[in-house]
Amino acid sequence: MELYSGHINRLVEELAGLPGIGEKTAGRLAFHIIGMPQSRVERLAKALTDAREHVCYCQSCQTFTDDVLCPICANGNRDHGTIMVVETARDLAAYERTGRYEGVYHVLHGAISPMLGIGPGDIRLKELMERLEKEEIREVILATGSSLEGETTAMYVSKLVKPTGIRCTRIASGVPVGGDLEYIDEVTLLRALDGRTEI
Ligand code: ZN
Asked: How far, in Å, CA of 134 to CA of 128, rounded?
């Protein structure tokens, strides 16, 4: 027997398919949405489809943006000679929130994981190497997480960067193992950045 109407079931199913949302939360959200004014539901639906349709990868750092270049890459006041390599756009946001990093970024959109079958070709590494060839880069800061995948990725990238002669550093550990950079407080992030060492 179906618990809810077909439409509600479908909505619950779609919401439950999102990361971090279980069946219970999906049900709660679905009923909340049904109770919302029609205009707000339409705004929500439009925000979803607009984001999916218009958001693209920054041509330089590969983060998500609405334009060819993201606001950070387009900003002439940033230090374009220092690239911080992060796993996700959310990690980039975490470092931006500290307000202290003046360089630019490179978002890999993942990390190397032999266990999950994610190889170097599955993340945006080729794009990073192209930047190192074309641009005047002084330092590459490896700020991938301290999980096994993050460490594997940092080692792999450092081996690619070293022969170029560009300075390659790794943020200090102290970032909890397997912790999502996004959830780490700003002081810890800054300490990890300041304590970076040559790799
Ligand atoms: Zn960018």
From this structure: 10
Using DSSP, state whether 197 is helix, strand or coil: strand
The predicted model scores a pTM of 0.81
> Which CATH number applies to 72-193?
3.40.1360.10
CA of 193 relative to ligand 1 center, distance in Å: 20
Q: From first to last of its 199 residues, what are the pLDDT tens digits of the chain?
A: 567 789 999 999 999 999 899 999 999 999 999 999 999 999 999 999 999 999 999 999 999 999 999 999 999 999 999 999 999 999 999 899 989 999 999 999 999 999 999 999 999 999 999 999 999 999 999 999 888 999 999 999 999 999 999 999 999 875 554 556 666 777 888 888 888 988 8
* Ligand 1 midpoint to CA 34 (Å): 38
Instruction: Name the one residue in this structure whose structure tokens are 């996700």.
Output: 88
Sequence ranges of the chain with CATH classification 1.10.8.420:
6-54
- Distance between Cα 72 and ligand 1 center (Å): 6
For CATH 3.40.1360.10, the residue range(s) in the chain are 72-193
For domain 6-54, say whether CATH 1.10.8.420 is its number.
yes
* Cα-based angle 159, 163, 164 (whole degrees, multiple of 5): 115
Q: 69 C-alpha to center of ligand 1: Å?
A: 5
